[in-house]
Amino acid sequence: MTSPRETTHRLAPAFEDPVMEAQAAFRQLLAAQAQPGSIAILRGPVPPPPLGIAAGAVALTLLDHDTRLWLGDRLLAAGVDDYLRFHCGCPLVRDPSQADFGFASDPSDLPPLDRFMQGDDLFPHRSTTVVVEVSRLASPGTLRLVGPGIETETSLEIGPMSEDFWATRRAMQADFPLGVDLIFTSGDSLAAFPRSTSLAGNPCM
């Protein structure tokens, strides 16, 4: 029997025009990934909390029945899995190393980044894209970024993130092109942090 909560979340709105709105969100995602450190505003429906608007738009754009999804415990407890499985048809996994996408509503709800799928030498693209909601996302900021798509150096304010998070992210850079791609969201704002982007100096915690 379907629970009242499951029915409520399934009825929560998705894109009114799935093709046009998903294409628009996808273009913004591509632009953000091409210019790490830039902030995009993603329009979309208000999904069940604590999933934010930008994170929800990413999910509705990128998830389908072929993408394995990992969700943080807070999202699971709120029934966001019902919403995403109904609208996207994506299978849920509990092992981060098996996930094509991972979503967390708070940095503290993430496992260590190196537990997610990293790809391998033959197929480095077979890795997890991790989407994490943060309370602060602004540009410029104290986190200095360098790499492809950045002319010299750019900066972001992302946080709060733990020292362990950034230490793991730094250690993973040595294995490039393996690794995970990060997308930080805050409300309707989004910034991409692909694996090719490096941290310059010491990040502000």
Summarize the structure.
With 205 residues, this protein is of the alpha/beta class.
Describe the structure.
The chain has one domain: Bacterial phosphonate metabolism protein PhnH (Rossmann fold), CATH 3.40.50. The protein is of the alpha/beta class and 205 residues long. The mean pLDDT is 91. A 6-stranded mixed β-sheet has the order 1-8-7-4-3-2. It has 6 helices and 9 strands.
In CATH, the architecture is 3-Layer(aba) Sandwich
Measured distance between first and last alpha carbons: 46 Å
Task: State the order of secondary-structure elements, H for helix, E for strand.
Answer: HHEHEHHEEEEHEEE
Number of strands: 9
Q: Which secondary structure elements does this structure contain, and how are they paired or packed?
A:
Elements: H1 4-11, H2 18-34, E1 40-41, H3 53-62, E2 69-71, H4 73-77, H5 80-88, E3 101-104, E4 129-133, E5 136-146, E6 154-159, H6 163-172, E7 181-186, E8 189-193, E9 198-200
Parallel strand pairs: 2-3, 3-4, 4-7
Antiparallel strand pairs: 1-8, 5-6, 5-9, 7-8
Helix pairs in contact: 1-5, 2-3
Key features?
alpha/beta, globular, six-stranded mixed sheet, 6 helices, three-stranded antiparallel sheet, 205 residues, Rossmann fold
